[in-house]
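dumping this here so i dont lose it
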């Protein structure tokens, strides 16, 4: 799904959303230079894999948080973790580096990616890329969780 197809998908699934168009951003530092309407709810997304490349995870946290992968692994009973490659990102989520987003999970045809979302988003909005790093889509985090679960991927809401 590209950006316009993502918007269409959200509309077809009756998900209320708001769009902020902006220049392409590739990391959280670049996003800081953008005037966002809800900067406290922008998301940072980490596409991670286990040491055997058998299991893939998307970890979504508030933009100002740091994720200690060793602690995350221990807290969630996972094997050793490292960042997935750009090739894995393209093959599984059909995304390019800098565009990682939970909405990319809708491109995961084999339902391989387990989604972990920071509990701090629950009951709030979340800002994520629409499979393209030139915009941020704002929606209720509970709606995002529902979309991913309805797609067939596993979701855990966790304290990070």
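and the seq i came up w/
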């Amino acid at each position: 799904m590209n950006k316009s197809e993502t918007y269409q998908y959200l509309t077809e699934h009756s998900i209320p959303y708001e769009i902020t168009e902006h220049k392409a951003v590739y990391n959280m530092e670049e996003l800081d230079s953008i005037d966002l309407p809800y900067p406290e709810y922008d998301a940072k997304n980490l596409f991670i894999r286990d040491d055997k490349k058998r299991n893939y995870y998307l970890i979504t946290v508030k933009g100002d948080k740091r994720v200690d992968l060793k602690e995350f692994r221990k807290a969630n009973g996972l094997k050793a973790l490292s960042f997935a490659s750009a090739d894995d990102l393209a093959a599984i989520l059909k995304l390019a580096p800098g565009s990682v987003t939970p909405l990319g999970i809708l491109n995961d045809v084999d339902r391989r990616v387990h989604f972990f979302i920071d509990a701090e988003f629950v009951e709030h909005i979340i800002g994520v890329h629409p499979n393209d790093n030139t915009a941020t889509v704002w929606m209720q985090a509970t709606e995002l969780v529902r979309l991913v679960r309805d797609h067939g991927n596993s979701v855990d809401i966790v304290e990070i």
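The longest helix spans residues 141-151.
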